[in-house]
Amino acid sequence: MQTNMPDIADTAPALQTGKLDWVGMGEIELPFIFESKDLAPVTVNAKARAFVNLHKEDAKGIHMSRLFLALDLLSTEQQVNPQTIAQALDTFITSHEGLSDKAQIEFKFELPLRRKSLLSGKAGWKSYPITLTSTIENNVISYELTVDVTYSSTCPCSAALARQLIQNAFNEKFNQETLSQKDVHEWLGTTQGIVATPHSQRSIANVKVKLDSSCDEFDVVNLINTLEAELKTPVQAAVKREDEQEFARLNGQNLMFCEDAARKIKAVLENDNFSDYWLQINHYESLHAHDAVAIAVKGVSGGYKA
Ligand SMILES: Nc1nc2c(ncn2[C@@H]2O[C@H](COP(=O)(O)OP(=O)(O)OP(=O)(O)O)[C@@H](O)[C@H]2O)c(=O)[nH]1
């Protein structure tokens, strides 16, 4: 290796002096083994962002390669968990002595989970988009975990309007004299009987929770399970006809506006005692070309804003 290579990060003057909040790299390709409670360690293909602050006003720049190599160690020699992320953040800061006292790592990846069908006993893969952001500031680490849960929402207004049409069709078809249980039963099984169906839409709950420095284990599976159990109509993986029928029943029994979904999720996050949370519910409307959206936060002073 040539020994006299110029190192302008150390020697060149800054074009203009000043502190910077974050400097680093984005879109780093980084496969790693992710560890989370109740999950066998799983290899994921992440995109990473790695940052330190630059508080030395006249320093030309940070040492990108030192951040990159600390991340590479996470990818090749370790598994990703709160302890190893804390080590990487520590390396970010110690390798930038005099330049930086804050560090941040963000991972974006898809987490594949085995999901059971509703009734048939089958199973299939479903991928959940995850963003994990870890920050050290004033020697304190915090983690932010964002998951997206996809589900189906059936419009309660549309359901009521459809029921009214069914009642009207019933009145037209039957009167007191002609009413027979057999005829009504048969008629209910026709499209003339169930003359209208409510619209439903693919919907996504974006949920971000804050985990403090005491977090010694990520628990993504439990968070996803809790959200899906509350929404009751998560998008399915393996589906046989009996599962599809159960999905139809669950949709019919869990009609929801975006406000309903947001309040349900807010209640479970309150219950789970996260130090802070942010949620956005998106109903990608099939009635409209626009979406229905609801947002809520815990409301902690200095915390997430809606
Ligand atoms: N700071 C900084 N570096 C950049 C930027 N764009 C590319 N780089 C490159 O990032 C590379 C790595 O920089 P360093 O970490 O200082 O590399 P190095 O000097 O070999 O490593 P050390 O000996 O540990 O300092 C350099 O080749 C820079 O040119 C930028 O916008 N800012």
Automatic annotation (TrEMBL):
<dbReference type="Pfam" id="PF02649">
    <property type="entry name" value="GCHY-1"/>
</dbReference>
<feature type="site" description="May be catalytically important">
    <location>
        <position position="155"/>
    </location>
</feature>
<protein>
    <recommendedName>
        <fullName>GTP cyclohydrolase FolE2</fullName>
        <ecNumber>3.5.4.16</ecNumber>
    </recommendedName>
</protein>
<comment type="similarity">
    <text>Belongs to the GTP cyclohydrolase IV family.</text>
</comment>
<dbReference type="InterPro" id="IPR022838">
    <property type="entry name" value="GTP_cyclohydrolase_FolE2"/>
</dbReference>
<dbReference type="GO" id="GO:0003934">
    <property type="term" value="F:GTP cyclohydrolase I activity"/>
</dbReference>
<dbReference type="InterPro" id="IPR003801">
    <property type="entry name" value="GTP_cyclohydrolase_FolE2/MptA"/>
</dbReference>
<dbReference type="GO" id="GO:0046654">
    <property type="term" value="P:tetrahydrofolate biosynthetic process"/>
</dbReference>
<keyword id="KW-0378">Hydrolase</keyword>
<comment type="pathway">
    <text>Cofactor biosynthesis; 7,8-dihydroneopterin triphosphate biosynthesis; 7,8-dihydroneopterin triphosphate from GTP: step 1/1.</text>
</comment>
<comment type="function">
    <text>Converts GTP to 7,8-dihydroneopterin triphosphate.</text>
</comment>
